[in-house]
Amino acid sequence: MSTKASALSPVSERRVFPWREEVRIAVVIPAYKVTERIREVVSRTPRWVYRIFVVDDACPQDSGSAAETMRDPRVVVLRHSENRGVGAATRTGFRAAVDAGCHIAVKIDGDGQMDPTMLETIVTPLLREEAALAKGNRFWHVQALREMPRIRLLGNVFLSFLLKMASGHWHVFDPTNGYLAIRTDVFQMLDQSHLSDRYFFESSLLIETGAYGFRVVDVPLPARYPGGESSLSIGHTIATFPWLVGLGGIRRFWCRHFWLDFTPVGLISMTGAPLILWGLAFGGYAWWKSISTGAPATAGTVMLAALPFLLGAVFLLQALAMEASGSFNGRIGVYDLRTILKKDKDRHPGSDGWLIERRDHSEP
Questions:
Q1: CA gyration radius for the chain?
Q2: How confident is the model over 259-280, as pLDDT tens digits?
Q3: CA distances for 40 relative to 28, 36, 86, angstroms
């Protein structure tokens, strides 16, 4: 483990975060065709994790039963009656973490590609109240990148740029990385209907946190590729992700800069967009008229189309630069974490744990 991670061991971290032991951290493992590796993932999960929610997404291999054989008292297996996707399974686990009174929920895939021993590293920004969501970034480790399949590497670079624009998190890279930690009060505030049930889940989560102005940080985490069957179709990803990113980006921009708040980015964009539309519309009309009549457009006509277009482009670039500066996504949580811990202690004096409410978590 890195020096930073070692410095934040359960013993030494008490000095850094005197209230750390009061924070309940849950791990959520969506389980589908991971019978061979789910036991290893559970066994490598640090002992200080409060609950491990394994969500069996109607797995034909019964991955949930494999996790139950571990006889780890922290493991709670939740089952979907039908396959609903990794996003739906993750949301089921996150809701269970909320019901269990956990303050932070961490998603780890059950296929062994994510190292559970790196949990301290990824939850540290949340414990330090530096971010509302922390996610892994495989692109910090050049050596590990050499092990990444080339098609996956190129796809991640392309999707990263699209997600930067759509989510407003311009400092975040590797958007499809599913190793992430989120504060449960932040998760509850998000509009659940806009979180994807399938492989777009991580991207939709970034877009949704951007809509509410929550801060997201990258944590350097190397990837592992132990082999095994992948359920992700590259063709389906290429066909659907850009479309979903575009629609999500439009909604995020509207919510962040107009609906939930009226920001300078919204004002500048509202000024620049009509100028560009006018330049395109009038320029197109003038060009069509010139072609139809054979008469060249006058200098004044050209300027009347070009000048608004160029001015509008400058406005939009300025809006883009302002958003990329990172000053618009600074919210850490809905409430102060230490205030939440104090209220929890007042509600449950002298209690070391929470009673998990047994209910059907398969419903939205």
A1: 24
A2: 988 999 999 999 999 999 999 9
A3: 15, 8, 20
Which regions of the chain are under pLDDT 70?
Answer: 1-21, 141, 143-145, 147-148, 223-238, 326-327, 345-364
What's the CA gap between 294 and 139, in Å, rounded? Answer: 55
Q: Residue 26 pairs with which residues in a beta bridge? A: 51, 105
Euclidean distance between CA atoms 311 and 317, whole angstroms: 10
- Dump the DSSP string for 246-258: HHHHHHHHHIIII
Q: Where do the H-state alpha helices sit in 45-149?
A: 63-68, 86-99, 119-127, 142-145
Tokens of 28: 């959520």
Q: What is the per-residue pLDDT for 358?
A: 32
Phi, psi of 24 (to 5 degrees): -95, 120
Distance CA 355, CA 332 (A): 28
Reported as type and span, the H/E element at residue 179 is: none
| Residue 236 pLDDT | 65
Kindly give the pairing relationship between strand 104-107 and strand 25-31: parallel
Q: Where are the alpha helices (DSSP H) in 106-260?
A: 119-127, 142-145, 150-167, 184-189, 201-212, 234-254
Cα dihedral: 152, 155, 161, 167 (round 10): -80
Looking at domain 3-259+330-347, its CATH architecture is Alpha-Beta Complex (3.90)
With beta carbons less than 8 A apart as the criterion, state whether 169 and 216 touch. yes
